[in-house]
């Protein structure tokens, strides 16, 4: 089997298509959550904390040197906090979505199990057993 044919079969499977759709929707959902965090949640949080903009919080490891034209080396702790907050919100939203979908799904009741129909051999063996029991 050629590699191209194998790849075509792989790419056309339903799971791969579903995964691709999920990635695209996830990327769009990430933008929505990013805007929710950056534009809606962080400004009031910054107001509560005295106007602190989390994205401005940084630890300067090495200051910029104007003479040598070297930029500052910073640890951007605030940007990391923004990403952590976004992750927690995304995880919570996904949790709520999955919980809602599971609640909407109808719980499938397994069909009642019918008594198994005995095979011809079992019927014959039962008849032989009954005849032997009568003979005693």
Sum up the structure in keywords:
136 residues, mainly alpha, Non-ribosomal Peptide Synthetase Peptidyl Carrier Protein, Chain A, 4 helices, 65% helix
Structural notes for this entry:
- The chain is mainly α and 136 residues long.
- It has one domain (3-108): Orthogonal Bundle (Non-ribosomal Peptide Synthetase Peptidyl Carrier Protein, Chain A), CATH 1.10.1200.
- 65% of the residues lie in helices and 5% in strands.
- The chain has 4 helices and 2 strands; from the N terminus they run H-H-E-E-H-H.
- The chain has helices at residues 3-11, 14-48, 77-104, 120-135; strands at 59-62, 73-75.
- It has a two-stranded antiparallel ribbon with strand order 1-2.
- The chain starts with a helix and ends with a helix.
- The model has no long low-confidence stretch (mean pLDDT 81).
Instruction: Please tell me the CATH architecture by its name.
Output: Orthogonal Bundle
What proportion strand?
Answer: 5-15%
Share of helix among residues?
55-70%
Number of strands: 2
> SS-based structural class?
mainly alpha
The helix/strand series, from N terminus to C terminus, equals: HHEEHH
Detail the poorly predicted runs: none
- Distance separating the two termini: 68 Å
Main sheet?
2 strands, antiparallel
* CATH fold topology: Non-ribosomal Peptide Synthetase Peptidyl Carrier Protein, Chain A
Compute the number of helices: 4
The total domain count is 1
Q: Give the radius of gyration.
A: 33 Å
Record the strand order, biggest sheet: 1-2
CATH evolutionary superfamily: Large-conductance mechanosensitive channel, MscL, domain 1
Mean of the pLDDT scores? 81
Q: Identify the quaternary structure here.
A: single chain
CATH class: Mainly Alpha
Query: What overall geometry do the principal axes of the alpha carbons give?
Result: elongated
């Amino acid at each position: 089997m050629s590699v191209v044919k194998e790849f075509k079969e792989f790419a056309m499977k339903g799971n791969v298509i579903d995964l691709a759709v999920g990635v695209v929707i996830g990327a769009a959902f990430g933008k929505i959550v990013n805007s929710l965090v950056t534009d809606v949640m962080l400004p009031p949080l910054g107001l509560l904390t005295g106007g602190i903009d989390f994205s401005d919080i940084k630890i300067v490891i090495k200051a910029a040197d104007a003479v040598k034209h070297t930029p500052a080396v910073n640890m951007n702790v605030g940007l990391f906090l923004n990403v952590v907050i976004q992750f927690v919100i995304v995880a919570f939203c996904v949790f709520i979505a999955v919980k809602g979908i599971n609640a909407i799904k109808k719980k499938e009741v397994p069909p009642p199990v019918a008594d198994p129909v005995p095979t011809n051999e079992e019927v014959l063996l039962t008849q032989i057993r009954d005849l032997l029991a009568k003979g005693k």
